[in-house]
Amino acid sequence: MNSDNLHPVELSSQVIDSGIVNQPLNRFTQELTEIDDGLAIVESFSHCWIQKTEEGLVCIDASGPQTGKAVVESMRAWSQDPVHTLVYTHGHIDHVGGSGAFFADVKDKGVSPPKVVAHEGVIPRFERYRMTNGWNSFINKRQFGGIRPLANFGLGNTVENFVPKDVAEPDQTYRDQLSMKVGNWNFELRHARGETDDHTWVWDPDNKAVFAGDFVAWVFPNAGNPQKVQRYPIEWAAAMREMLAVGAEKIYPAHGLPIVGRKRVEQVLGDIAESLEHLADSTLKLMNEGATLDQIIHEVKLPDHLQEQPWLAPQYDEPEFVVRNVYRQFGGWWDGNAANLKPAPEQRVAKEMVQLAGSVETLIDRALEVTEAGDLRLACHLIELAVTAEPIHEGAHRARAEIYWRRRAEERSLMSKGIYASAARQSEAVFGEETNRKSMRSRSDK
Fold first, then answer.
1. In sequence order, what DSSP letters do the residues of 43-105 get, joined into one string?
2. Domains of the chain listed by start with CATH number
3. Rounded Cα distance, 221 and 324, in Å
4. Which pTM value belongs to this model?
5. 268 and 16 in contact (C-beta within 8 Å)?
6. Mean pLDDT per 10-residue run, the chain (446 residues)?
7. Phi, psi (rounded to 5 degrees) for 214
């Protein structure tokens, strides 16, 4: 059997037991697989978990606005039972954006729509998204557009309404914990902060199974995102410890593969908790010693034994960003550099640096020199000074595009790749416009 077609549990067990990865672990096939008796997953972005009960289906997450319809079609090929309850693990659009398809499915069938259950924080999240619709659309296009088209992530190529109009608002919310019985099935909804402040993980005590939402995603925890609101790595780690304490033997995540078997669960959840605890503890230790943010982000690293674990791959977020988020949570926005408390305008500083260097070309040449020497971090600082000092300098923008494309190629996380690709494309647009202006001037001179 082709490894890409392996049953999700079989693939997961192979990877955890061997530590070897030779195929994608986050699959967006839109195909349904039965995982246990009456339990299925539609692998999407994000997944939808479906449990059959005597009263109807319980669905955990609705996937995104571009994938919800395909999820429902796969579900209906497996079961025609009505959807009794739809649970949101949190309010991110790739988890709730497909809910409109679930409601459209029952519209013409004369059956009751599903009850939507979520943490109480989902409602203010939707309100915040609507208030900052333009900003969220912009940063998501930058974050995801650096890798592949947004549509592949269930976000669309443009996002005019970050919260789609047909997203279903929760009918029932809870604060700390909610016991829910559907047919003969018992579900316990538990709140914990981690990637979001409105996150739910669902405990099925009879089957010792956790529907983990984004607490487990088969990539390094999204606890540091540089463009988004506060994340909570310490509480995320505590949630991992609680899942282990209740006796979880199965983990059903919203991204990536199901994890079956107590030892495997202990391995993955333990590693996630340890990584976040180490980063948080090390950051706080240095903060308590009076270290600046600059010192901390260049000193705190993930322990060697955790760096190559397949379920901690820094393909989306990365440890350095988590360090920054711990600092932000406990230390505020000032980085410890007195000049940055009330800084001069960036362009004024850049022009001063150009004057000291002698010319903008000197900065450009030096940026390219250190790029060739492999110091891309320093090269980015130098080239930013050049383009900030002279915003339409064609040579500066050509060098900037080259540097950021090279920076993107050396990064692993989607967040870094997206931001660096955005910067490169921005400069390409600028020197493209400058080239066009020169061409037009040349034609007019003739």
1. -SSS-EEEEEETTEEEEE----TTTHHHHHHHHHHH----EEEEE-SS--HHHHTTHHHHHHH
2. 3-274 (3.60.15.30), 280-333 (no CATH), 344-445 (1.25.40.880)
3. 14
4. 0.92
5. yes
6. 72 95 92 97 97 98 97 97 97 97 88 96 97 89 61 43 90 98 97 98 98 98 96 98 98 98 98 98 98 98 96 96 98 96 98 98 98 98 98 96 97 95 94 61 46
7. -95, 5
